[in-house]
Protein backbone atom coordinates (compact mmCIF):
# COMPACT_ATOMS: atom_id res chain seq x y z
CA UNK A 1 0.00 0.00 0.00
CA UNK A 2 2.81 2.40 0.97
CA UNK A 3 4.68 1.56 -2.25
CA UNK A 4 1.56 2.30 -4.33
CA UNK A 5 1.07 5.64 -2.55
CA UNK A 6 4.73 6.56 -3.14
CA UNK A 7 4.43 5.64 -6.83
CA UNK A 8 1.31 7.81 -7.12
CA UNK A 9 3.08 10.77 -5.48
CA UNK A 10 5.92 10.37 -7.98
CA UNK A 11 3.50 10.24 -10.92
CA UNK A 12 1.81 13.44 -9.70
CA UNK A 13 5.21 15.11 -9.31
CA UNK A 14 5.91 14.25 -12.96
CA UNK A 15 2.49 15.63 -13.96
CA UNK A 16 3.31 18.87 -12.11
CA UNK A 17 6.70 19.09 -13.85
CA UNK A 18 4.98 18.63 -17.23
CA UNK A 19 2.44 21.35 -16.27
CA UNK A 20 5.09 23.87 -15.29
CA UNK A 21 7.27 23.19 -18.36
CA UNK A 22 4.25 23.83 -20.60
CA UNK A 23 3.32 26.95 -18.60
CA UNK A 24 6.83 28.39 -18.99
CA UNK A 25 6.82 27.64 -22.73
CA UNK A 26 3.43 29.33 -23.14
CA UNK A 27 4.39 32.23 -20.88
CA UNK A 28 7.60 33.03 -22.69
CA UNK A 29 7.27 36.36 -24.49
CA UNK A 30 8.64 34.97 -27.73
CA UNK A 31 7.58 35.83 -31.28
CA UNK A 32 6.52 32.19 -31.76
CA UNK A 33 3.36 32.71 -29.72
CA UNK A 34 0.59 34.58 -31.51
CA UNK A 35 -0.45 36.97 -30.11
CA UNK A 36 2.69 37.43 -27.96
CA UNK A 37 2.05 36.25 -24.40
CA UNK A 38 2.96 39.65 -22.95
CA UNK A 39 -0.09 41.02 -24.78
CA UNK A 40 -2.64 38.36 -23.85
CA UNK A 41 -3.95 36.54 -20.80
CA UNK A 42 -3.38 32.79 -20.91
CA UNK A 43 -5.06 29.76 -19.37
CA UNK A 44 -4.64 26.09 -20.19
CA UNK A 45 -5.23 22.73 -18.54
CA UNK A 46 -2.07 20.66 -18.20
CA UNK A 47 -4.26 17.91 -16.73
CA UNK A 48 -6.40 17.70 -19.88
CA UNK A 49 -3.34 17.58 -22.15
CA UNK A 50 -1.57 15.10 -19.87
CA UNK A 51 -4.52 12.68 -19.88
CA UNK A 52 -5.04 12.92 -23.66
CA UNK A 53 -1.33 12.27 -24.26
CA UNK A 54 -1.39 9.38 -21.75
CA UNK A 55 -4.19 7.83 -23.81
CA UNK A 56 -1.98 8.34 -26.90
CA UNK A 57 0.84 6.54 -25.06
CA UNK A 58 -1.49 3.59 -24.40
CA UNK A 59 -1.76 3.07 -28.16
CA UNK A 60 1.92 3.65 -28.91
CA UNK A 61 4.89 1.31 -29.08
CA UNK A 62 8.67 1.38 -29.32
CA UNK A 63 10.50 4.70 -29.35
CA UNK A 64 7.22 6.63 -29.68
CA UNK A 65 5.91 5.21 -26.42
CA UNK A 66 9.26 5.79 -24.70
CA UNK A 67 9.31 9.45 -25.76
CA UNK A 68 5.75 9.99 -24.50
CA UNK A 69 6.59 8.26 -21.21
CA UNK A 70 9.70 10.41 -20.79
CA UNK A 71 7.69 13.61 -21.35
CA UNK A 72 4.71 12.59 -19.20
CA UNK A 73 5.88 10.03 -16.70
CA UNK A 74 9.53 10.66 -16.04
CA UNK A 75 10.95 7.65 -17.86
CA UNK A 76 14.72 7.84 -17.41
CA UNK A 77 17.59 5.92 -18.95
CA UNK A 78 17.46 2.31 -17.85
CA UNK A 79 13.94 2.57 -16.40
CA UNK A 80 11.56 -0.24 -17.42
CA UNK A 81 9.10 1.25 -19.91
CA UNK A 82 6.23 -1.01 -18.83
CA UNK A 83 6.49 0.14 -15.21
CA UNK A 84 6.46 3.78 -16.32
CA UNK A 85 3.43 3.10 -18.55
CA UNK A 86 1.61 1.33 -15.71
CA UNK A 87 2.25 4.33 -13.42
CA UNK A 88 0.95 6.72 -16.07
CA UNK A 89 -2.29 4.75 -16.54
CA UNK A 90 -2.71 4.31 -12.77
CA UNK A 91 -2.57 8.11 -12.43
CA UNK A 92 -5.18 8.51 -15.18
CA UNK A 93 -7.36 5.98 -13.35
CA UNK A 94 -7.05 7.91 -10.07
CA UNK A 95 -7.78 11.21 -11.81
CA UNK A 96 -10.83 9.91 -13.71
CA UNK A 97 -12.44 8.04 -10.82
CA UNK A 98 -11.39 9.98 -7.69
CA UNK A 99 -9.65 13.35 -8.14
CA UNK A 100 -12.11 14.62 -10.78
CA UNK A 101 -15.28 13.04 -9.38
CA UNK A 102 -18.22 15.45 -9.14
CA UNK A 103 -18.63 16.85 -5.63
CA UNK A 104 -21.63 19.13 -6.15
CA UNK A 105 -24.24 16.97 -4.43
CA UNK A 106 -22.28 17.24 -1.16
CA UNK A 107 -21.66 20.99 -1.49
CA UNK A 108 -18.24 20.73 -3.18
CA UNK A 109 -17.20 21.81 -6.67
CA UNK A 110 -19.25 20.73 -9.66
CA UNK A 111 -16.91 18.70 -11.87
CA UNK A 112 -17.30 16.98 -15.24
CA UNK A 113 -14.41 14.95 -16.61
CA UNK A 114 -14.55 12.71 -19.68
CA UNK A 115 -12.50 11.04 -22.37
CA UNK A 116 -13.61 9.82 -25.78
CA UNK A 117 -12.16 7.83 -28.67
CA UNK A 118 -13.57 8.44 -32.16
CA UNK A 119 -12.43 5.68 -34.52
CA UNK A 120 -13.11 5.15 -38.21
CA UNK A 121 -15.75 2.47 -38.74
CA UNK A 122 -13.42 0.54 -41.06
CA UNK A 123 -11.00 -0.11 -38.18
CA UNK A 124 -11.25 -2.17 -35.01
CA UNK A 125 -9.55 -1.10 -31.79
CA UNK A 126 -7.24 -3.63 -30.13
CA UNK A 127 -9.08 -5.21 -27.16
CA UNK A 128 -6.13 -4.35 -24.86
CA UNK A 129 -6.28 -0.65 -25.79
CA UNK A 130 -10.08 -0.49 -25.60
CA UNK A 131 -10.07 -2.18 -22.20
CA UNK A 132 -7.49 0.31 -20.94
CA UNK A 133 -9.35 3.32 -22.38
CA UNK A 134 -12.75 2.32 -21.00
CA UNK A 135 -11.54 0.86 -17.68
CA UNK A 136 -8.89 3.32 -16.51
CA UNK A 137 -9.76 6.45 -18.52
CA UNK A 138 -13.57 6.09 -18.38
CA UNK A 139 -13.48 6.75 -22.14
CA UNK A 140 -16.47 6.45 -24.44
CA UNK A 141 -15.74 4.88 -27.83
CA UNK A 142 -17.52 6.09 -30.98
CA UNK A 143 -17.41 4.45 -34.40
CA UNK A 144 -17.55 7.21 -37.03
CA UNK A 145 -17.21 7.63 -40.80
CA UNK A 146 -14.20 9.86 -41.49
CA UNK A 147 -14.19 8.76 -45.14
CA UNK A 148 -17.61 10.03 -46.14
CA UNK A 149 -18.85 12.21 -43.27
CA UNK A 150 -15.84 14.20 -42.06
CA UNK A 151 -17.87 17.40 -41.52
CA UNK A 152 -20.46 15.54 -39.43
CA UNK A 153 -17.68 13.99 -37.31
CA UNK A 154 -16.27 17.45 -36.57
CA UNK A 155 -19.76 18.44 -35.39
CA UNK A 156 -20.01 15.28 -33.29
CA UNK A 157 -16.66 15.91 -31.54
CA UNK A 158 -17.52 19.58 -30.96
CA UNK A 159 -20.95 18.68 -29.54
CA UNK A 160 -19.33 16.16 -27.18
CA UNK A 161 -16.85 18.81 -25.94
CA UNK A 162 -19.56 21.45 -25.58
CA UNK A 163 -21.74 19.07 -23.51
CA UNK A 164 -18.94 18.07 -21.09
CA UNK A 165 -17.83 21.70 -20.64
CA UNK A 166 -21.38 22.97 -19.99
CA UNK A 167 -21.32 25.07 -23.16
CA UNK A 168 -18.15 27.01 -22.27
CA UNK A 169 -16.09 25.54 -25.14
CA UNK A 170 -17.83 25.57 -28.49
CA UNK A 171 -16.50 24.79 -31.97
CA UNK A 172 -13.17 23.44 -30.70
CA UNK A 173 -12.36 21.78 -34.03
CA UNK A 174 -12.67 24.00 -37.11
CA UNK A 175 -14.32 22.56 -40.21
CA UNK A 176 -11.68 20.95 -42.38
CA UNK A 177 -9.58 19.75 -39.43
CA UNK A 178 -10.88 16.21 -40.02
CA UNK A 179 -10.67 14.64 -43.48
CA UNK A 180 -10.58 11.29 -45.28
CA UNK A 181 -7.04 10.63 -44.05
CA UNK A 182 -8.14 10.86 -40.39
CA UNK A 183 -8.33 7.48 -38.69
CA UNK A 184 -8.61 8.28 -35.00
CA UNK A 185 -9.43 11.16 -32.65
CA UNK A 186 -8.68 11.12 -28.91
CA UNK A 187 -10.48 13.71 -26.79
CA UNK A 188 -10.48 14.87 -23.17
CA UNK A 189 -12.74 17.52 -21.69
CA UNK A 190 -13.26 18.86 -18.18
CA UNK A 191 -15.43 21.38 -16.35
CA UNK A 192 -14.89 22.87 -12.88
CA UNK A 193 -17.14 25.21 -10.92
CA UNK A 194 -16.18 25.94 -7.33
CA UNK A 195 -17.37 28.51 -4.79
CA UNK A 196 -14.83 30.16 -2.50
CA UNK A 197 -14.89 28.90 1.09
CA UNK A 198 -15.13 32.60 2.00
CA UNK A 199 -16.76 34.60 -0.77
CA UNK A 200 -15.77 38.16 -1.53
CA UNK A 201 -18.32 40.87 -0.71
CA UNK A 202 -19.37 42.21 -4.12
CA UNK A 203 -20.32 45.56 -2.58
CA UNK A 204 -16.65 46.10 -1.72
CA UNK A 205 -15.41 45.56 -5.30
CA UNK A 206 -13.84 48.80 -6.52
CA UNK A 207 -11.97 49.94 -9.61
CA UNK A 208 -8.25 50.42 -9.13
CA UNK A 209 -5.00 50.71 -11.08
CA UNK A 210 -3.52 47.56 -12.65
CA UNK A 211 0.03 48.06 -13.96
CA UNK A 212 0.86 46.53 -17.35
CA UNK A 213 4.13 45.00 -18.53
CA UNK A 214 4.77 47.84 -20.99
CA UNK A 215 4.72 50.42 -18.19
CA UNK A 216 1.14 51.59 -18.84
CA UNK A 217 -1.87 50.94 -16.63
CA UNK A 218 -5.63 50.32 -16.76
CA UNK A 219 -8.52 50.75 -14.34
CA UNK A 220 -9.83 47.29 -13.38
CA UNK A 221 -12.41 45.99 -10.87
CA UNK A 222 -10.68 44.57 -7.76
CA UNK A 223 -12.26 42.24 -5.23
CA UNK A 224 -11.02 42.92 -1.70
CA UNK A 225 -11.02 41.44 1.79
CA UNK A 226 -9.43 42.11 5.18
CA UNK A 227 -10.07 38.59 6.56
CA UNK A 228 -7.17 36.35 7.61
CA UNK A 229 -5.80 34.54 4.56
CA UNK A 230 -3.60 31.60 3.58
CA UNK A 231 -0.64 33.63 2.43
CA UNK A 232 3.16 33.39 2.28
CA UNK A 233 5.69 36.14 1.69
CA UNK A 234 9.18 35.38 0.36
CA UNK A 235 10.89 38.69 -0.29
CA UNK A 236 10.38 38.94 -4.05
CA UNK A 237 7.26 36.74 -4.19
CA UNK A 238 3.89 36.54 -2.44
CA UNK A 239 1.59 33.53 -2.72
CA UNK A 240 -2.13 33.67 -1.91
CA UNK A 241 -4.21 30.51 -1.53
CA UNK A 242 -7.97 30.82 -2.06
CA UNK A 243 -9.68 27.52 -1.09
CA UNK A 244 -12.93 26.34 -2.65
CA UNK A 245 -15.75 24.88 -0.57
CA UNK A 246 -15.24 21.22 0.20
CA UNK A 247 -17.83 18.53 -0.37
CA UNK A 248 -18.26 15.31 1.58
CA UNK A 249 -14.74 13.97 1.02
CA UNK A 250 -11.17 14.93 1.81
CA UNK A 251 -10.44 16.65 -1.50
CA UNK A 252 -9.54 20.33 -1.25
CA UNK A 253 -9.39 22.37 -4.44
CA UNK A 254 -7.68 25.76 -4.24
CA UNK A 255 -6.60 28.61 -6.49
CA UNK A 256 -3.08 29.94 -5.98
CA UNK A 257 -2.04 33.40 -7.10
CA UNK A 258 1.73 33.86 -7.42
CA UNK A 259 2.53 37.55 -7.39
CA UNK A 260 6.11 38.63 -8.14
CA UNK A 261 7.25 41.76 -6.32
CA UNK A 262 8.57 43.30 -9.52
CA UNK A 263 5.88 44.67 -11.82
CA UNK A 264 7.68 42.98 -14.73
CA UNK A 265 8.62 39.82 -12.81
CA UNK A 266 6.18 37.46 -14.55
CA UNK A 267 8.64 35.83 -16.98
CA UNK A 268 11.40 35.20 -14.45
CA UNK A 269 8.81 33.64 -12.11
CA UNK A 270 7.54 31.36 -14.90
CA UNK A 271 11.11 30.28 -15.67
CA UNK A 272 11.83 29.59 -11.99
CA UNK A 273 8.76 27.34 -11.81
CA UNK A 274 9.93 25.47 -14.91
CA UNK A 275 13.52 24.98 -13.75
CA UNK A 276 12.63 24.13 -10.15
CA UNK A 277 9.50 21.90 -10.16
CA UNK A 278 9.67 21.58 -6.37
CA UNK A 279 9.44 25.41 -6.13
CA UNK A 280 5.63 25.23 -6.03
CA UNK A 281 5.40 22.81 -3.10
CA UNK A 282 7.98 24.83 -1.17
CA UNK A 283 5.92 28.01 -1.52
CA UNK A 284 2.42 26.76 -0.70
CA UNK A 285 0.97 28.73 2.22
CA UNK A 286 0.07 26.37 5.07
CA UNK A 287 -1.39 28.74 7.68
CA UNK A 288 -3.81 31.63 7.79
CA UNK A 289 -2.22 34.91 8.76
CA UNK A 290 -3.66 38.37 9.50
CA UNK A 291 -3.62 40.59 6.43
CA UNK A 292 -4.00 44.31 6.09
CA UNK A 293 -5.84 43.91 2.79
CA UNK A 294 -5.96 41.67 -0.23
CA UNK A 295 -6.97 42.95 -3.65
CA UNK A 296 -7.43 40.58 -6.55
CA UNK A 297 -8.81 41.62 -9.95
CA UNK A 298 -11.81 39.86 -11.44
CA UNK A 299 -10.90 38.27 -14.76
CA UNK A 300 -12.23 36.10 -17.57
CA UNK A 301 -9.96 34.31 -20.04
CA UNK A 302 -10.58 32.14 -23.08
CA UNK A 303 -7.42 30.82 -24.72
CA UNK A 304 -6.80 28.18 -27.36
CA UNK A 305 -3.77 26.94 -29.24
CA UNK A 306 -2.44 24.16 -31.45
CA UNK A 307 -0.01 22.31 -29.19
CA UNK A 308 2.14 20.34 -31.66
CA UNK A 309 4.93 22.92 -32.02
CA UNK A 310 5.02 23.55 -28.27
CA UNK A 311 5.29 19.83 -27.47
CA UNK A 312 7.98 19.31 -30.12
CA UNK A 313 9.92 22.11 -28.41
CA UNK A 314 9.75 20.08 -25.19
CA UNK A 315 11.29 17.08 -26.97
CA UNK A 316 8.11 15.23 -27.98
CA UNK A 317 8.77 14.77 -31.70
CA UNK A 318 8.28 11.07 -32.43
CA UNK A 319 4.42 10.94 -32.44
CA UNK A 320 4.32 13.63 -35.16
CA UNK A 321 6.91 12.02 -37.44
CA UNK A 322 6.76 9.41 -40.17
CA UNK A 323 8.55 7.09 -37.71
CA UNK A 324 5.62 7.24 -35.24
CA UNK A 325 4.76 3.82 -33.81
CA UNK A 326 1.03 3.87 -33.05
CA UNK A 327 0.64 0.14 -33.51
CA UNK A 328 -1.19 -0.60 -30.26
CA UNK A 329 -4.44 1.11 -31.30
CA UNK A 330 -5.74 -1.24 -33.97
CA UNK A 331 -6.19 -4.98 -34.40
CA UNK A 332 -5.34 -5.05 -38.10
CA UNK A 333 -2.20 -3.47 -39.61
CA UNK A 334 -2.88 0.03 -40.98
CA UNK A 335 -0.87 2.32 -43.20
CA UNK A 336 1.64 4.56 -41.44
CA UNK A 337 -0.21 6.72 -38.92
CA UNK A 338 1.02 9.79 -37.04
CA UNK A 339 -0.38 12.63 -34.98
CA UNK A 340 -1.38 15.46 -37.31
CA UNK A 341 -2.63 17.98 -34.76
CA UNK A 342 -3.29 18.55 -31.04
CA UNK A 343 -5.89 21.23 -30.34
CA UNK A 344 -6.41 22.66 -26.85
CA UNK A 345 -8.72 25.33 -25.49
CA UNK A 346 -9.44 26.53 -21.95
CA UNK A 347 -11.74 29.03 -20.26
CA UNK A 348 -11.68 30.50 -16.74
CA UNK A 349 -13.75 33.15 -14.98
CA UNK A 350 -12.89 34.41 -11.49
CA UNK A 351 -15.33 36.61 -9.56
CA UNK A 352 -16.54 37.31 -6.02
CA UNK A 353 -18.38 33.98 -5.76
CA UNK A 354 -15.68 31.62 -7.04
CA UNK A 355 -14.40 30.16 -10.28
CA UNK A 356 -15.85 28.53 -13.38
CA UNK A 357 -13.36 26.84 -15.70
CA UNK A 358 -13.32 24.37 -18.57
CA UNK A 359 -10.84 22.79 -20.95
CA UNK A 360 -10.67 20.37 -23.86
CA UNK A 361 -7.85 18.63 -25.70
CA UNK A 362 -8.23 16.77 -28.99
CA UNK A 363 -5.51 14.67 -30.65
CA UNK A 364 -6.07 14.05 -34.37
CA UNK A 365 -4.30 11.11 -36.00
CA UNK A 366 -3.99 10.63 -39.72
CA UNK A 367 -2.37 8.16 -42.05
CA UNK A 368 0.76 8.77 -43.70
CA UNK A 369 8.87 28.54 4.60
CA UNK A 370 9.90 31.78 6.07
CA UNK A 371 8.63 33.82 9.07
CA UNK A 372 5.59 36.05 8.41
CA UNK A 373 5.14 39.66 9.37
CA UNK A 374 2.17 40.39 11.60
CA UNK A 375 0.07 41.77 8.75
CA UNK A 376 0.83 41.69 5.05
CA UNK A 377 -1.01 43.17 2.13
CA UNK A 378 -1.58 41.25 -1.09
CA UNK A 379 -2.29 43.74 -3.85
CA UNK A 380 -2.38 41.90 -7.20
CA UNK A 381 -2.14 45.14 -9.21
CA UNK A 382 0.38 43.89 -11.79
CA UNK A 383 0.83 40.72 -13.90
CA UNK A 384 0.68 37.44 -11.98
CA UNK A 385 0.54 33.67 -12.43
CA UNK A 386 -2.35 31.55 -11.13
CA UNK A 387 -3.15 27.88 -10.91
CA UNK A 388 -5.93 25.62 -9.68
CA UNK A 389 -4.97 22.35 -8.04
CA UNK A 390 -6.35 19.61 -5.81
CA UNK A 391 -4.28 19.89 -2.65
CA UNK A 392 -4.50 16.40 -1.13
CA UNK A 393 -2.95 14.85 -4.27
CA UNK A 394 -1.22 17.90 -5.78
CA UNK A 395 -2.84 17.37 -9.20
CA UNK A 396 -2.74 20.64 -11.19
CA UNK A 397 -5.93 21.32 -13.19
CA UNK A 398 -5.29 24.77 -14.67
CA UNK A 399 -2.36 27.19 -15.03
CA UNK A 400 -2.42 30.69 -16.47
CA UNK A 401 -1.28 34.26 -16.20
CA UNK A 402 -3.01 37.63 -16.18
CA UNK A 403 -1.24 40.52 -17.89
CA UNK A 404 -4.37 42.70 -18.15
CA UNK A 405 -7.64 41.79 -16.37
CA UNK A 406 -9.66 43.94 -18.79
CA UNK A 407 -8.81 41.92 -21.89
CA UNK A 408 -12.03 40.33 -23.13
CA UNK A 409 -12.05 36.63 -24.10
From TrEMBL:
Organism of provenance: Urochloa decumbens
Domain of life of the native organism: Eukaryota
UniProt xrefs under Gene3D superfamilies: Alpha-1-antitrypsin, domain 1, Antithrombin, subunit I, domain 2
Stored SMART domains: SERPIN
Signal peptide range in chain numbering: 1-23
Keyword presence, Signal: yes
Serpin domain segment(s): 24-405
Protein name: Serpin domain-containing protein
One Pfam family matching this protein: Serpin
Homology family: Belongs to the serpin family.
Keywords, ordered alphabetically: Signal
Amino acid sequence: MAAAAAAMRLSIAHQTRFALCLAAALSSPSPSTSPPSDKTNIVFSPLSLHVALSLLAAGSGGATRDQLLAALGGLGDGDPAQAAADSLHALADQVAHLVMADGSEAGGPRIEFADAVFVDKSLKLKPAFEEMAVGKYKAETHSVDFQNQAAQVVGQVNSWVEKVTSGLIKELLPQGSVNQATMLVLANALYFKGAWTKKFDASKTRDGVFHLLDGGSVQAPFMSSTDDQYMSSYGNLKVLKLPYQQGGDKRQFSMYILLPEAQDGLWSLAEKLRSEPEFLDKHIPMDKIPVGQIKVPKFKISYGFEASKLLKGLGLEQPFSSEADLSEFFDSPVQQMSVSSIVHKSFVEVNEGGTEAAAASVILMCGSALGHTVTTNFIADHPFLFLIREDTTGVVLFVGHVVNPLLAP
